[in-house]
Design brief:
- With 408 residues, this protein is mainly β.
- The protein has one domain: 7 Propeller (Methylamine Dehydrogenase, Chain H).
- A five-stranded mixed β-sheet has the order 3-33-32-31-30, with no helix packed on it.
């Protein structure tokens, strides 16, 4: 399950321990590092009158077996409804999968009938009537699972990870150009530093490891899913680098050859969000930490791997620790921050793709909207109605998180 509050623990090391160990390693294969960094301009910081609407309060009694802590975000399926997962269940059981109408009617379509030992760890993927996601399990000698749930709530297990397959599958699955589904594991593999895997979405669900991260590579521990880019290659990020500095951006060919195309320079530039791409081929993403103010930042990478910082968080009330970014219908970037803002419980923001303007659309728990939630830990989803939809981890009328809608 994805929790970004506090220190990471990977293969027995905290993130700070990795940073100390990284500083001791100086000899790695050469890489062209990009130095085209810019600083976001705070002259472009604006307030907003955008109206946020709460469409559901989790655990408020309107849905049986309702989930709590909806920390993986929403997807919209072809039926027009949104689907998501929650980390826990109000009945003291494991995680849940739910359906949410645009008007906020929630139906729990699956919940684990065991104590809190199983939980979804990434945003769902809708594929041919199935909702597919990795599941973390804490049972002894039981590895993570890949599971699919149909819209009637029937779940089937597609694969159980072995240590060699990978551990901590936190990245959402994507559909590859070859018809297979691709995902990432934060740890595990032969060196314990993560893997990229693929699985055939038809029985018998053939599974294979495409790439294994190692400490001899520049980056380790991919915490986000992949992007199938316009050039036909896959792109992803690693949260941690193995030389002084932060995480990395890598390219993987359809044949599985991985090249690290960028290394974040700051020691705490941890990158654990997926990349997105605009129609001009530019990439966008975020770091959860790092930057001048240690609040993370939004960056832009050109198709030739030149990186520019668009906005640095943690300066004033703009927010801190950004989640995934999404392109809105007007071409601007939108996202949420876990912390910061007027009450330090996070924000919803809008950012131009050249970084010249930044607008806070909403400050959570600032009193303008009752029970609006606290600390969103997932990015926004652009709905078919061109509104943005998201979730908060906590707060709301029952204290178990909320789902909301906001117009760009």
């Amino acid at each position: 399950m994805k929790h970004r509050v506090g220190l990471r623990i990977v293969s027995g090391f905290t993130r700070d321990a990795f940073a100390r160990r990284n500083s001791l390693r100086t000899s790695l294969r050469p890489l062209v590092l990009v130095t085209a960094f810019g600083l976001s301009s705070y002259l472009g910081l604006y307030a907003s009158d955008a109206q946020l609407t709460i469409i559901h309060n989790f655990g408020n009694g309107t849905a049986s077996n309702s989930g709590t802590v909806p920390n993986t975000g929403l997807i919209q399926a072809p039926d027009g409804n949104f689907y998501g997962t929650a980390a826990h269940n109000t009945a003291g059981l494991g995680g849940t999968t739910y359906q949410l109408t645009p008007n906020g009617v929630l139906t729990t379509i699956h919940h684990f009938r065991v104590t809190s030992q199983k939980s979804f760890s990434a945003k769902l993927l809708y594929y041919k009537g199935e909702l597919i996601a990795p599941i973390i399990t804490a049972f002894q000698n039981t590895g993570p699972l890949l599971a699919a749930t149909n819209l009637s709530g029937e779940m089937s297990m597609w694969h159980q990870f072995t240590p060699a397959d990978g551990g901590g599958p936190r990245g959402s699955l994507i559909l590859g150009s070859d018809g297979n589904l691709y995902g990432t594991c934060y740890g595990g593999g032969s060196g314990g530093y993560g893997t990229i895997y693929k699985i055939n979405p038809t029985p018998p669900y053939a599974f294979s490891v495409v790439y294994t991260f190692s400490y001899s590579s520049l980056g380790i521990s991919p915490a986000a899913g992949l992007l199938l880019a316009q050039d036909g290659n896959y792109y992803g990020t690693t949260e941690i680098g193995t030389t002084p500095g932060g995480g990395t951006i890598f390219q993987m060919t359809p044949a599985g050859q991985v090249t690290f195309v960028y290394h974040f320079p700051g020691a705490t530039d941890y990158c654990d969000s997926p990349l997105i791409q605009d129609k001009n081929g530019n990439f966008y993403g975020s770091t959860i930490d790092g930057g001048t103010y240690r609040g993370g930042y939004i960056f832009k990478m050109s198709s030739t791997f030149q990186v520019t910082i668009l906005h640095q968080f943690g300066h004033g009330t703009d927010g801190s620790w950004p989640n995934d970014v999404v392109l809105g219908p007007n071409g601007n970037l939108y996202g949420t921050t876990i912390f910061g803002g007027k009450r330090r419980f996070g924000t919803v923001y809008e950012l131009s793709t050249d970084g010249t303007s930044y607008t806070v659309l909403h400050n959570f728990a600032d009193g303008t909207i009752a029970n609006d939630g606290k600390s969103p830990e997932a990015g926004l989803t652009l709905g078919s109605d061109n509104n943005l939809y998201g979730t908060t981890n906590f707060g709301g009328s029952a204290g178990n998180g909320t789902a909301f809608r906001i117009s760009p």
